[in-house]
Design a protein that fits this description.
With 195 residues, this protein is mainly alpha-helical. The protein contains six helices and six strands, in the order H-E-E-H-H-H-E-E-H-E-E-H. Strands 1-2 form a two-stranded antiparallel sheet. It has a two-stranded antiparallel ribbon with strand order 3-4. Strand 5 and strand 6 form a beta hairpin. Helix 3 packs across helix 4. The protein is globular and about 65 Å long. InterPro entries: ABATE, ABATE_dom_sf, Znf_CGNR. It comes from Polymorphospora rubra. This is Zinc finger CGNR domain-containing protein.
């Protein structure tokens, strides 16, 4: 998926989370979760070829997406709305993870076998977030601070304090709005007069 401002996508496990959250392009007015096939295509693009969806999954997938965006926005210092926490809590309850240990002794959280549809996708997203939380990349997946954008981007900046998906578009607009909002008092002694 193309990132604004030529940003690099999120690393490794977070790519699916980022791509799922960005299935709605608010600035462009496009929602790519229109049908069950759209969810299946997204999953297939990330190697999840055995997950099937039906049309009833679309509305819930959109709710999950917006709740994830709210969590990513919290990574910029905004509080997650209680409704989004409730949505995530309910969906995660139906998408449990289990601990898997491989032959080399490595442990990982994986979706419980037998999950289908949106529960399988939710569990996969959760497993990838667990990996990202462990490697400390999760807090750098952020939602743009521009409320007409909310694009989910990965903050590659050294300090990890980026607030907008791209400074040249959303950041500039926000700074211009703030500048105009402050207004500039007119100092009568500075206003040129004609003699």
């Amino acid at each position: 998926m193309t990132q604004p401002g030529d940003r690099a996508p999120a690393p490794g496990a977070l790519t699916l989370v980022q791509d799922f959250a960005n299935t709605a392009d608010l600035a462009g007015g496009h929602d790519s979760l229109g049908a069950a096939g759209d969810l299946a295509a997204l999953c297939a693009a990330h190697g999840l070829t055995d997950v099937c969806f039906d049309e009833t999954d679309i509305g819930e997938a959109r709710r999950l997406r917006e709740a994830l965006r709210d969590v990513c926005e919290a990574h910029t210092g905004v509080e997650v709305p209680a409704t989004s926490l409730a949505v995530l809590g309910a969906m995660l309850d139906g998408a449990p993870l289990t601990l898997s240990i491989d032959a080399a002794g490595q442990a990982s959280a994986v979706p419980r076998p037998g999950l289908t549809g949106l529960s399988a996708l939710t569990a996969e997203l959760a497993a990838r977030i667990v990996v990202a939380a462990a490697d400390r990349t999760w807090p750098r997946l952020k939602a743009c601070g521009a409320h007409d954008c909310r694009w989910v981007y990965y903050d590659h900046s050294p300090a990890g304090r980026s607030r907008w998906c791209t400074m040249s578009i959303c950041g500039s607009r926000a700074k211009m709005r703030a500048y105009r909002g402050r207004g500039r008092p007119i100092n009568a002694s500075v206003v040129p007069t004609r003699s």
